[in-house]
């Protein structure tokens, strides 16, 4: 048992558990090292760090940054998430996250406006209840929960399929920081830049390889390994890219809560022989 999980979410973004509850679950799962990586916020990290210390769990400063990059095959931008880990100087990151939060709040309101036009109902008050009035914490998952509660859809995924995903009527793109700039700011914060879940972006194998190539060229430090149930050919491709670009690897469950039971806290993939875990290089 490796006891490391470097990707998880609390209710400071789109997770179900509070930072304290998350640490309690991590203790039950016998985790030794973890990072809280909420979307574009480190607001939950202080609570998580304090509670982790009480239980002898090594806490790593983390955040998942929403960024974008340019696909080579068609003229469009594509969302990509960069996880920042083990930041030692938070000031540069806090400046970026302030801008990201403002963009997140604006995007959430635009989505709600579109839904109101389509469905003739204002869902915003109920959505705000889920995030204690913090518009910058609203994600599409929160919106999907309310649509499910109001019987607009029969399951949360249907909300994405009908309204919220790219190409649907209520979709609003999130154009935050560019990937290369996110990596630079992570390094200014004396942290490590990790390409999160590289196989989850609905990209062809060719474009995944191109994305990793661009990530490495921009100074990215590590790739997050895919779940254990990933097709062998996909895992082998990523392993080759790690070796080719001399990248380190990271592991994380991307745990959100009971509403995503397929993502279990502490359930992380195994490293291939010769791969270096990014946590081995942390300054603690």
Automatic annotation (TrEMBL):
SMART domains: POLIIIAc (SM00481). Residues 4-69 form the Polymerase/histidinol phosphatase N-terminal domain. GO terms for molecular function: 5'-3' DNA exonuclease activity; 5'-3' RNA exonuclease activity. Transmembrane segments: none annotated. PANTHER family: EXONUCLEASE, POLYMERASE_HISTIDINOL PHOSPHATASE N-TERMINAL DOMAIN-CONTAINING PROTEIN. This is Phosphatase. It comes from Acinetobacter populi.
């Amino acid at each position: 048992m490796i006891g490391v999980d470097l990707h998880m979410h609390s209710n400071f973004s789109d997770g179900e558990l509070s930072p304290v509850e998350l640490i309690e679950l991590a203790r039950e799962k016998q985790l030794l090292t973890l990072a809280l990586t909420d979307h574009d916020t480190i607001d939950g990290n202080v609570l998580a760090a304090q509670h982790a210390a009480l239980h002898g769990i090594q806490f790593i400063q983390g955040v998942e940054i929403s960024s974008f990059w340019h696909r080579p095959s068609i003229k469009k931008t594509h969302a990509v998430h960069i996880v920042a880990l083990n930041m030692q100087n938070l000031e540069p990151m806090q400046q970026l996250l302030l801008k990201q939060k403002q963009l997140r709040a604006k995007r959430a309101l635009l989505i709600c406006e579109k839904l109101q036009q389509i469905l003739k109902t204002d869902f915003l008050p109920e959505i705000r209840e889920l995030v204690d009035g913090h518009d910058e914490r609203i994600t599409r998952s929160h919106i999907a929960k309310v649509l499910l509660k109001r019987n607009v859809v029969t399951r949360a995924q249907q909300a994405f399929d009908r309204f919220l995903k790219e190409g649907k009527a209520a979709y609003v793109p999130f154009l935050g920081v560019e990937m290369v700039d996110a990596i630079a700011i992570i390094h200014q914060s004396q942290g490590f830049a990790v390409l999160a879940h590289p196989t989850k972006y609905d990209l062809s194998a060719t474009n995944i390889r191109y994305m990793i190539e661009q990530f490495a060229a921009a100074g990215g430090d590590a790739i997050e390994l895919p779940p254990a149930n990933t097709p062998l050919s996909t895992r082998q491709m990523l392993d080759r890219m790690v070796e080719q670009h001399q990248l380190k690897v990271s592991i994380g469950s991307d745990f959100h809560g009971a509403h995503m039971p397929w993502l279990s806290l502490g359930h992380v993939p195994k490293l291939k022989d010769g791969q270096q875990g990014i946590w081995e290089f942390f300054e603690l």
